[in-house]
Design brief:
The protein has 122 residues and is an all-alpha fold. It has seven helices and no strands. The protein starts with a helix and ends with a helix.
Amino acid sequence: MYFMFIKLMLFFAFSFFLVIIYWSEKERVFMRANWSLVVDKILTHSNQDDLAVLFQLLLTEEERSAIAGRLKVFQSLLAGELSQRQIAAEYQVSIATITRCSNYLKNMSPQQRDLIQTLILD
Protein backbone atom coordinates (compact mmCIF):
# COMPACT_ATOMS: atom_id res chain seq x y z
CA MET A 1 0.00 0.00 0.00
CA TYR A 2 2.84 2.38 0.91
CA PHE A 3 4.60 1.86 -2.43
CA MET A 4 1.37 2.38 -4.37
CA PHE A 5 0.86 5.61 -2.42
CA ILE A 6 4.36 6.77 -3.33
CA LYS A 7 3.85 5.87 -6.99
CA LEU A 8 0.53 7.68 -7.21
CA MET A 9 1.86 10.65 -5.31
CA LEU A 10 4.88 10.99 -7.58
CA PHE A 11 2.77 10.38 -10.68
CA PHE A 12 0.36 13.16 -9.70
CA ALA A 13 3.10 15.61 -8.77
CA PHE A 14 5.22 14.88 -11.83
CA SER A 15 2.28 15.09 -14.23
CA PHE A 16 1.19 18.42 -12.72
CA PHE A 17 4.79 19.67 -13.05
CA LEU A 18 4.86 18.77 -16.75
CA VAL A 19 1.51 20.43 -17.46
CA ILE A 20 2.91 23.87 -16.66
CA ILE A 21 5.47 23.60 -19.46
CA TYR A 22 4.31 24.76 -22.89
CA TRP A 23 4.58 22.43 -25.89
CA SER A 24 3.32 22.73 -29.43
CA GLU A 25 0.35 20.48 -30.26
CA LYS A 26 2.57 17.99 -32.07
CA GLU A 27 4.94 17.82 -29.11
CA ARG A 28 2.02 17.43 -26.69
CA VAL A 29 0.68 14.44 -28.64
CA PHE A 30 4.15 12.92 -28.67
CA MET A 31 4.60 13.55 -24.94
CA ARG A 32 1.20 12.06 -24.06
CA ALA A 33 2.15 8.85 -25.84
CA ASN A 34 5.53 8.77 -24.09
CA TRP A 35 4.03 9.72 -20.73
CA SER A 36 2.11 6.44 -20.78
CA LEU A 37 5.42 4.64 -21.10
CA VAL A 38 6.76 6.51 -18.06
CA VAL A 39 3.68 5.68 -16.00
CA ASP A 40 3.86 2.04 -17.06
CA LYS A 41 7.53 1.90 -16.09
CA ILE A 42 6.83 3.43 -12.68
CA LEU A 43 4.00 0.99 -12.01
CA THR A 44 6.21 -2.02 -12.74
CA HIS A 45 8.35 -1.27 -9.67
CA SER A 46 7.27 -1.91 -6.11
CA ASN A 47 10.62 -1.48 -4.42
CA GLN A 48 11.31 1.99 -3.01
CA ASP A 49 15.03 1.76 -3.80
CA ASP A 50 14.30 0.87 -7.43
CA LEU A 51 11.90 3.79 -7.70
CA ALA A 52 14.47 6.15 -6.20
CA VAL A 53 17.01 5.06 -8.82
CA LEU A 54 14.45 5.45 -11.60
CA PHE A 55 13.51 8.97 -10.50
CA GLN A 56 17.16 9.94 -10.15
CA LEU A 57 17.58 8.86 -13.75
CA LEU A 58 14.47 10.65 -15.04
CA LEU A 59 14.54 13.83 -12.97
CA THR A 60 17.18 16.36 -12.01
CA GLU A 61 17.70 17.20 -8.34
CA GLU A 62 15.87 20.48 -8.96
CA GLU A 63 12.87 18.68 -10.49
CA ARG A 64 12.71 16.18 -7.62
CA SER A 65 12.88 19.06 -5.16
CA ALA A 66 10.13 20.95 -7.01
CA ILE A 67 7.89 17.87 -7.00
CA ALA A 68 8.49 17.27 -3.29
CA GLY A 69 7.72 20.92 -2.55
CA ARG A 70 4.58 20.88 -4.63
CA LEU A 71 3.41 17.71 -2.89
CA LYS A 72 3.87 19.37 0.51
CA VAL A 73 1.92 22.40 -0.75
CA PHE A 74 -0.98 20.21 -1.92
CA GLN A 75 -0.97 18.30 1.37
CA SER A 76 -0.97 21.52 3.37
CA LEU A 77 -3.70 23.13 1.30
CA LEU A 78 -5.90 20.06 1.56
CA ALA A 79 -5.30 19.77 5.31
CA GLY A 80 -6.27 23.43 5.67
CA GLU A 81 -4.20 23.97 8.80
CA LEU A 82 -1.73 26.58 7.49
CA SER A 83 -2.12 29.86 5.65
CA GLN A 84 -0.43 30.27 2.28
CA ARG A 85 2.25 32.47 3.86
CA GLN A 86 2.90 29.83 6.52
CA ILE A 87 3.18 27.14 3.83
CA ALA A 88 5.66 29.30 1.89
CA ALA A 89 7.79 29.88 4.96
CA GLU A 90 7.69 26.33 6.27
CA TYR A 91 8.43 24.54 2.99
CA GLN A 92 10.45 27.26 1.25
CA VAL A 93 8.21 27.43 -1.80
CA SER A 94 7.09 30.51 -3.66
CA ILE A 95 3.69 32.11 -3.23
CA ALA A 96 3.29 31.63 -7.01
CA THR A 97 3.63 27.86 -6.60
CA ILE A 98 1.12 27.86 -3.78
CA THR A 99 -1.30 29.96 -5.85
CA ARG A 100 -1.01 27.57 -8.81
CA CYS A 101 -1.66 24.58 -6.56
CA SER A 102 -4.57 26.35 -4.87
CA ASN A 103 -6.12 27.28 -8.22
CA TYR A 104 -5.68 23.73 -9.46
CA LEU A 105 -7.55 22.41 -6.42
CA LYS A 106 -10.30 25.01 -6.81
CA ASN A 107 -10.91 23.94 -10.42
CA MET A 108 -11.21 20.24 -9.58
CA SER A 109 -14.51 18.46 -9.45
CA PRO A 110 -15.51 17.21 -5.98
CA GLN A 111 -14.77 13.66 -7.12
CA GLN A 112 -11.26 14.59 -8.27
CA ARG A 113 -10.59 16.45 -5.04
CA ASP A 114 -11.75 13.45 -2.98
CA LEU A 115 -9.45 11.18 -4.97
CA ILE A 116 -6.49 13.52 -4.54
CA GLN A 117 -7.16 13.74 -0.79
CA THR A 118 -7.20 9.96 -0.58
CA LEU A 119 -3.98 9.66 -2.58
CA ILE A 120 -1.89 12.23 -0.74
CA LEU A 121 -3.39 12.62 2.73
CA ASP A 122 -4.47 9.14 3.81
